[in-house]
Amino acid sequence: MADSLYLSTNSKKRSADEFLAAKKQMKHWESDPAASLANARHEFGEHGGVNMSIEASATFTVMEPETMGRMFSGELGPDRDFFIYSRHFNPTVLNLSRQIAALEGTEAAYCTASGMSAISSVLLHLVSSGDNVVASQTLYGGTHALLTHFLPRCSGISTTFVDIQDLGMVDEAIVEGKTKVLYFESISNPTLTVANIPELSRLAHRKGVKVIVDNTFAPMCISPAKLGADVVVHSISKFISGGADIIAGAVCGSASLMNSMMDLHQGPLMLLGPTMNAKVAFELAERIPHLGLRMKEHSHRALVFATRMKKLGLRVIYPGLEDHPDHALLTSMINKEYGYGGLLCLDMETEEKANKLMNILQNCTQFGFMAVSLGYYETLMSCSGSSTSSELNDEEKKLAGISPGLIRMSIGYSGTLEQRWSQLEMAFSRLQDSKN
C-alpha cells in the first residue's frame, strides 16, 4: 500500500487497526492502478504548495543530542519524520517511493539511481554465495550479463536459464534449498513473450522460492504483485519517466523486505549506495499522475500499427494481436483499461534489412528515431541483436528467439496516428522500391 509506513527493523509493528486500514486501501488498487495512485497520500509543499517541496539536504539536524542515538538504534525513523542521511532515506525520494508502491499495489517501494541498481540490489539481498537463481533465457541484455558473468565471478551465485513458458522445465530447474529466486520479465525484452505470472508464482512458492518480476515493459498494464509475485522491479527511465531524460529504478515489495534492504548493517540499498537524487525524485513524481493516460495511448497506437502491418504481410510481433501465441494469457492478466503495452517487434530476418528500414524510417520519412530505450513520446527503434541484447552470444540469442533482423519499436504518441501511419507506409514502399 502506497501509504504504508517504513518501519525500522528494530521498531514496533503497526497496530492491527492500522493494518486493517491498509488492507481496506488495497481494495481501491485492485480495481485499477490509477485508483490506488489517486488514493495515495498527497505530499504538499512546505508553504502549502500543491506540489511537494524538494528536500535537497544530504544530512538532517536534530533538536536534542539524544535523538540521534535513538535514530541509529532504530527507535525513531522516517515513519515518524526522523531522517538521518539521504543515502538512507530522503523525504522527497520516499514520497516517490510511495507513488511507485501504489502503482504496483505493494506495501512499499524504494527508488534507486537506475534500473540495474534496483535489480542487482534485490538479487544480492535475496541470494547468497553458493545459491542459485532460475531465470528466463530471454532477458534484457544487462540483466543477462549480470546473471551470467558478474554474479558468478564476484558473488559465487549461479543462474540456470530456462524457457519461462515451459512450466515443467522451470519446475525441474528449481532445486529446493539451493534455488532462492525465480526471475523473469512480465513481457520479455525484446521478443515480447508473456510470462504466466500466477502459475510461475504458485510453482515457485511451493518450493519456497521468491519471485522477482521486471515490469518495465508494462507499468499500469500488468500488476505482477496482484498476480502472485513477491518483488517487482522497474527501470523508471522508460515508460514511467516518459521523457528519455532520467535514469532511475525501483524495487517494490513488502515493507519488511524494504526495511531489511535498508538495514544499517546488512542492507544492500544502504551499503551499496544506489541513491536517487531528490531533484530527480521530484521530477518523476510530477509525471506519474499522467502515466495512465500515456500508457493508454502507447498501447492504442501499438495495436493499430501492429494490426495494419500484419495486413501488409509483415512479420510483426505484438501480444495484443489475436494470433499472437500469448494473446489469451496476456488478456487474462492485464488491467484492461491500459491495453497490451507500447512495444512491438518487426522481424526483417537479417540485420542488413533491419538497418535499411530503420534508416528510411528515421532519415527519410521521420517516423521515429534509431535509439535504445523505450517509453518516450517519440517512437524509438533498434535492432536488438546488435544493441540491447548484444551481451548475449549467438547461441543465447537463438535460445531467446532473437533473430538477427528483429527490430524493437517503442511506439510513441507524438503527431497524429494517421500522420505516423502514412510515414510507416511510405517507408515500407521505399524499401520495396529499393529491391526492384
Summarize the structure in words.
By secondary structure, this protein is an alpha/beta fold. The protein folds into 2 domains: 16-286, Type I PLP-dependent aspartate aminotransferase-like (Major domain) (Aspartate Aminotransferase, domain 2, 3-Layer(aba) Sandwich), CATH 3.40.640; 290-435, Aspartate Aminotransferase, domain 1 (Alpha-Beta Complex), CATH 3.90.1150. Helix content is 40%, strand content 13%. It has helices spanning 16-31, 33-39, 65-72, 91-104, 115-126, 141-155, 167-173, 197-206, 255-261, 268-271, 278-285, 291-311, 327-333, 351-363, 394-400, 417-435; strands at residues 108-112, 132-136, 158-162, 179-185, 210-214, 231-235, 249-253, 316-317, 343-347, 369-370, 380-383, 406-410. It has a 7-stranded mixed sheet with strand order 1-7-6-5-4-2-3, with helices on both faces. Strand 4, helix 8 (197-206) and strand 5 form a beta-alpha-beta unit. Helix 1 (16-31) crosses helix 2 and helix 4 (91-104) crosses helix 11. The longest helix has 21 residues, at 291-311.
Give a quick summary of the entry.
It comes from Daucus carota subsp. sativus (Carrot). By secondary structure, the chain is an alpha/beta fold.
Run of helices and strands? HHHHEHEHEHEHEEEHHHHEHEHEEHEH
- By CATH reckoning, the class of the largest domain would read Alpha Beta
What overall form do the CA principal axes indicate?
globular
- Tally of structural domains: 2
Terminal CA distance reads 59 Å
Structural class call reads alpha/beta
CATH topology name of the largest domain, in short, is Aspartate Aminotransferase, domain 2
As laid out across the biggest beta sheet, the strand order is 1-7-6-5-4-2-3
Q: Give the biggest beta sheet.
A: 7 strands, mixed
CATH H-tier superfamily of the largest domain: Type I PLP-dependent aspartate aminotransferase-like (Major domain)
What fraction strand? 5-15%
Radius of gyration: 22 Å
What is the quaternary state of this protein?
single chain
Number of strands: 12
Give the helix level as a range of percent. Answer: 40-55%
Low-confidence stretches: 1-29
Q: Output mean pLDDT.
A: 90
Pfam families: Cys_Met_Meta_PP
GO biological process, one term: transsulfuration
InterPro entries: Cys/Met-Metab_PyrdxlP-dep_enz, PyrdxlP-dep_Trfase, PyrdxlP-dep_Trfase_major, PyrdxlP-dep_Trfase_small
GO cellular component, one term: cytoplasm
